[in-house]
Write a structure and sequence with these properties.
With about 375 residues, the chain is an alpha/beta fold. It has 13 helices and nine strands. This is Alpha/beta fold hydrolase.
């Protein structure tokens, strides 16, 4: 006996119809399709996960190693050279570098003429920031232990701003005599910084404010330093930028060698502290303080070294600083000497050592020694 399936029975159990019926009767079937929304959310999730992964790698391999290194740094006073004349052991010359520099020792060694003034030392900053009171205490302690009563401070570019604040601490907070402060192309305030350099510093401050790890990031430092050298590899005509790739490669190698992996390169946090010292305008305040009579000490001499042609300094408007120095410490009864060597640029004694050493010996040394041997009586 055989049974035959009725055609309607076969249709009732058709799998395609069953799936269609399930779709029609499931919860939310009447709502609009969310397929596109789900796809967009999935893509956003993938992007977020990728960003988190990249940020984690950036934090682990770029920020944390540098943060650990900076936590172990301290300011130091490094011996550089003994005086040429044994009678000059009564004076210590302390050199300080400017924005982007950490260790003044190479600069001080490029200036053997400083040995005519006395024993030469160099400041190595704390890479986490600048504390001028700590630096002043280091200098006072070292000179006291060495039996050196007189001090000459030298500051290159922004290092002059730091030197002036250190000078105020030494002049009013110690028993050492501050003989002179030598300022090499130093901006007395933010207005003395040329607009392009000022904007780069402002951009860096802005990045420090919102980018996590910016104070320690070597990637950020690399990008900033390469951008600052763009005139060496980029030629812009209107909206078109022509890139010289061999020159760009050379700049990248230079930045990696001198600014990213060098132990003598300043951290972003130190650069921030240095730039903020200029923004705060403390140099003018310190100059006024040093120009006032002290009850127990004569006023220190102030020496300003600048290019004869102001246009050769692309960072600082030295004419502006020159005029401000005349108003603050110059005049008939002032203590200012302005020296204008030829062929120098912005605070570049390591690049133009002959010019710097020549004026230090022929002009600055006689002025400082005359000032030191015939001190102005306190008023």
């Amino acid at each position: 006996m055989s049974f035959e399936r009725h055609p309607s029975t076969v249709a009732d159990y058709d799998d395609a119809r069953r799936r269609a019926r399930l779709r029609e009767t499931r919860w939310g079937s009447g709502a609009p399709s969310w397929r596109r929304t789900r796809l967009v959310l999935l893509r956003c999730l993938v992007v977020v996960l990728a960003a988190v992964t990249v940020f984690a790698q950036y934090w682990q391999h770029d920020v944390m190693p540098e943060r650990d290194r900076l936590a172990r740094t301290d300011p130091e006073l490094l011996p550089v050279a003994t005086p040429f004349d044994d009678q000059r052991w009564d004076t210590a010359v302390v050199d300080m570098v400017g924005l982007g520099g950490l260790n003044a020792e190479p600069t001080a060694r490029a200036l053997p003429a400083l040995r005519n003034f006395g024993v030469v030392w160099a400041v190595r900053y704390d890479n986490a920031g600048v504390d001028t009171k700590v630096i002043a205490e280091l200098i006072v302690q070292a000179t006291t232990l060495a039996g050196v009563p007189d001090i000459v401070l030298v500051g290159h570019s922004m290092g002059g701003v730091i030197a002036l604040e250190v000078a105020r601490h030494i002049h009013y907070g110690s028993d050492r005599r501050l003989v002179a402060v030598l300022l090499d192309c130093t901006p007395v305030d933010l207005n003395a910084v040329r607009p392009e350099s000022r904007s780069r510093g402002t951009d860096l401050m802005r990045l420090m404010g919102w980018l996590p790890g910016a104070r320690e990031s070597r990637i950020l430092r690399f990008a900033i330093e390469v951008t600052a050298r763009r005139e060496r590899f980029a030629d812009r005509e209107g909206l078109i930028v022509d890139i010289d790739y061999p020159a760009l490669r050379a700049v990248a190698v230079e930045v990696l060698r001198d600014k990213v992996f060098s132990r003598d390169a300043a951290s972003n946090g130190l650069i921030q502290a240095q730039f903020l010292a200029i923004v705060a305008g403390g140099a003018a305040r310190d100059l006024r303080a040093l120009a006032r009579a002290h009850p127990d000490k004569p006023r220190p001499a102030i020496v300003f070294l600048r290019p004869r042609d102001a246009a050769r300094d692309h960072i600082v408007d030295v004419d502006y600083s020159h005029q401000a120095l005349i108003e603050l410490v110059g005049g008939v009864d002032g203590t200012l000497l302005v020296v204008r060597p030829r062929n120098i640029g912005h605070a570049n004694p390591r690049q133009r050592p002959d010019e710097y050493n020549a004026v230090l010996e022929s002009q600055v040394l006689p002025f400082v020694q005359r000032y030191q041997q015939s001190p102005v009586e306190p008023q």
